[in-house]
Amino acid sequence: MRKALLVINCIILSIGNCGGPLITRLYFIHGGNRIWFSSWLEAAGCPIILLPIACAYMHRSRTADPTSENKLFYMERPLFLAAIVLGIITGLDNYFYSYGLSRLPVSTSSLIISSQLAFTAGFAYLLVKQKFTAYSINAVFLLTIGAGVLALHSSSDRPANEPNREYIMGFVMTLAASALYGFILPLVELTFKKAKQEISYALVMEIQLVMCLVATAFCTVGMLINNDFKVVGREAREFELGETKYYVVVISSAILWQCFFLGGIGVVFCASSLLSGIVVSFLLPVTELLAVISFNETFQAEKGVSLALSLWGFLSYFYGDIKQSKKKKPDPKTEITSSLPPNTVESSV
């Protein structure tokens, strides 16, 4: 069951990880320029999580013991407070990322964001004592090298007439977003491990809901200070693709980023923060290819090499994981022998 849930969350994460940056970049290149609003959209789609939470509640109502209490929300106070802290950090991370994507093309932004794997691995080792195998180290190495290969021609992706100061600020903010996200994933895993209540997937969705509500509130304050609410209507009318498509972009952005966050935290729940970081890094070259197709960004041979290295690293991790799982499985013969009474074992010898 957990493996099936892991696959589903990987698919959800893939949709959000590839679609989120593209739709946000589409917003910026066609006339959108409100960074706080873009940050707000990354978390504001959280009410859609109420639907699966309600489905889980109805399922429990039908299958649970009639004498047991069935609540819509199971989150207790310590976990609620932890989710609030995670939400504030997520809101700040959203702002950093949106600022960077407003200044950089998707390909360059993806290159910088790929460094999150190194941050995730480091923080996972410090916070949750993540154990590394030769295969997981190889995966991190290959995925990092794949990102480094992209750097060889990243300067050719620089937007025309982009001021040097703005480009550097975009680079710095994206790097900060990468480091912060690399910290969030192990922190979520640590929260799961330290929780004083049983963590179910329904509870994971509750945590995600609270995190995004807090992140939305954080960005709402930024929007109020920056007067974004007063400008959104005018921005929609002046959007190059038309007012209707502006709202389609806005709604799509909110939904896709929810897929990213829910898929990411779901992979942490089913496996580990390291695997969540590896999936994100593996998908970055895929996002590069989609950016080439969608926005006519240049595609050099280095991007193809990066994609191949990322695929190799991704497969290396899962090959190692399969080998580890086989080692943990007990030998059936040994299991049968150990289950026999002592005198039976001696006679069989």
TrEMBL record:
InterPro entries: EmrE-like, PUP_plant. One of its GO terms (cellular component) is membrane. It is a multi-pass membrane protein. GO terms for molecular function: purine nucleobase transmembrane transporter activity; purine nucleoside transmembrane transporter activity. It is found in: Membrane. The chain crosses the membrane at residues 35-58, 79-97, 109-128, 135-155, 167-188, 200-226, 246-269, 274-295, 301-320. Keywords: Membrane, Transmembrane, Transmembrane helix, Transport. Residues 335-349 have a biased composition (Polar residues). Residues 324-349 are annotated as: Disordered. Its main location: membrane. Belongs to the purine permeases (TC 2.A.7.14) family. This is Probable purine permease. It comes from Gossypium stocksii.
